[in-house]
Amino acid sequence: MKCLGILGEELRNMDIKAEFENWTGKIPDSYWVYTYVESENIYETGCKSGILILDGFARKDISLLEAEKEKIIKKFIDFRKTVGNTTVYLGSADGQIISNSQDQEIKRIQINIDFKEWEVLA
């Protein structure tokens, strides 16, 4: 899915540390891991839709995650980009703090972003 690559590229352009599915490097002060839930895939129109789920983690202070959350939501509240024969729309972003009963030291915020992706079929 092109929207995953576009999301990752845009987050890196915003200097937000993020990786798809799980973090693989040295753990920074804050980082984001993203995945998706695909809810619709209509072959006839070349349209996929669903939700991108970003989970942010920090050990020190949740205010760093809050600042990044606000930047992410502002960027993707109404975002469109075309790459090759695919157009991606990201919008309706919202975020929330997720309590962690297993490790109170780890802070977590989740952001949900609706996506639609259209591919021109040849």
**Biggest sheet: strands, sense, closure?**
6 strands, mixed
Count, helices: 2
Radius of gyration over all CA atoms, rounded:
15 Å
- The run of helices and strands is HEEEHEEE
User: What's the overall geometry?
Assistant: elongated
What low-confidence regions span 5 or more consecutive residues with pLDDT below 50? none
Structure summary, number of beta strands: 6
Query: What proportion of the residues is helical, as a percent range?
Result: 10-25%
C-alpha end-to-end distance: 17 Å
Beta-strand residue percentage: over 45%
- Widest sheet: strand order? 1-2-3-6-5-4
Task: Please tell me the overall pLDDT.
Answer: 90
Provide structural commentary.
By secondary structure, the chain is α+β, with helices and mostly antiparallel strands. Helix content is 22%, strand content 48%. It contains 2 helices and 6 strands. The chain has helices at 2-13, 62-76; strands at 18-20, 30-42, 47-58, 78-83, 86-97, 107-119. A 6-stranded mixed sheet has the order 1-2-3-6-5-4, with helices on one face. Strand 4 and strand 5 (86-97) form a beta hairpin. The two termini are 17 Å apart. The mean pLDDT is 90.
